[in-house]
Amino acid sequence: MNKFRIPWKNSVYIRMLLLFIVILSPVYVIGLLIYNWGIQAVKEQVYQSMDSQTAYYLNDLETKVEQMKILMLDSLNDDNLNNLATISPIMKISERRSAITRLQQRLFAIKSSSELIEDVVAYIPGTDMLVSGVSGYDNIGTEDAERLGRTGQRFTAAPELDGQYLKLRAPFPNSRNRKPVFIVEVTISVAQLNASLSYLAQPGLGETAALFRPAEDGIIAGANVSKQVQTMQTAVPPLPTNGEGKSFADVGGRSVFAVYHSSSKLNMTLIKSVTVDTVFGPVRKYQKWFWFFSASAFLIILFFSVSFYRSVHKPLVTVIRAFGKLQEGDLKVRIHRRNKDDFNYLYSHFNRTVKHLNVLIDQAYRQKILAQRAELKQLQAQINPHFLYNSFFMLHRMVKMEDNARAVVFSKKLGEFFQFVTRNGADEVLLAKETDHARIYADIQAMRFVSRLRIDFEPLPPSIQHYYVPRMILQPLIENAIEHGLRNKEKDGQIGVSYKVYPEVVIIVVEDNGEGLDEAGRRRLAHQFEESSEQDMEITALINIHRRLRIKFGADSGLTLSTSESGGLAIQVKIAVGGGERVSDIDR
To answer: Which residues belong to any copy of the HAMP domain (predicted)?
Structure first.
């Protein structure tokens, strides 16, 4: 090491660092400070103005709605309303007309208390009567009756959106367990809300304002509502009770700034947005200075780059080219340089590392092959027939019932199945034999569950019958579909096995019509596939197959999950044709 140690004043790194700090920092830091100070000052002024406007409007709207609720609840004690709801059938016609008139006058007085109120209506379901502060007496229509049946039994603490109107309702009595005797409903005009919001949003300045409920009704009312507001409302995060904040978003290539406040009493959020170009016009004078300093910084960086190229870039290119040759397999590559600088130390270690690699490469390569072969043997040994006992019990029942014909077929298939499972001579089999084994297993299960299960196999394409694949990659997938996918199906269970052949890949699809996996379940299992190389992970049947396919055919092969056309789980077995690292080919 001492051989390559050089004085600090000759170090390329120190010289370039000092040159960059001395020349560039003062110029650019001053420019950034001036520009950022101007930007922040204008932003704060705009934010304070918009924030105070939205807060005042929302507080004023809360006050008006609370006043409506007070008047609405007070009207529940009206004698005329109570008489019409309880003793209307025994009232004289003149008395009933007089009560309706006085009730209408009171409802109209409530309507006149706010310019936002469209109408105030009292519904009396028992007598099929409604009294409107605007239009007077009428019968309850079918549409109103259905609506009141759905929503009329609860008091609305916050206005509910109903078409072009917001509704406040007060039933009497206010109980979910009792049918209301009468209901007083205040209708708030969305058009009037739009008009009131227009004072917050001036079109000439690119301003917009809107009331919305993010999780329910979307935009309720607004002024100059456009894609700008619709985009901004999606940028508003979930707010706590009476929360507030600000946000930036890109809308149609333009930057938009928004301020929002939420109200727990109204269950609404008010958002006001404005285009940044409109509001931050005064900042452009700072931009001129910023561009001046940026141009100066660019010239300085250009000068610095030339110096850096000569002192640092050329040596780095030399190292990169050497690594490129090493990557191509040239283990004789060496770096020789006359100049004694920081990179000479790197060159020396590179040369020693390449020399050491020559000693280790053959040993490491062979260890990798042996380790993969051992892992393949270990994974294949994990697969055991889980249905052993049930199959023998079924064979016992067939013999006991003297169903000799089925017993002969069943015992033959069972013997063929275990003959294949216990044959450990080869790690791989022809795809045709693997498919035959899976079909035998399917026939056994179909005989066991004849009343609730059907398994369909497409014919194996002749072009892929000669492919060698790891043993037992299809039967466990059918077993998984029966034990998990169709576990809760008492009848009409279906499993299908199909094949798709492409120039670069063969796909075998095993799908069922069971319950399937939700998106979270598929993501979790896919994550286990990706992490399945960890030695401490429990190896399931699916992960077992996924790993063996990757060991055999490479990283482009393995299992993928999706939803079948019938709503169940579809498992695709991907086999890369001629791709990947093929351990068996190396051994042969």
So the answer is: 310-362
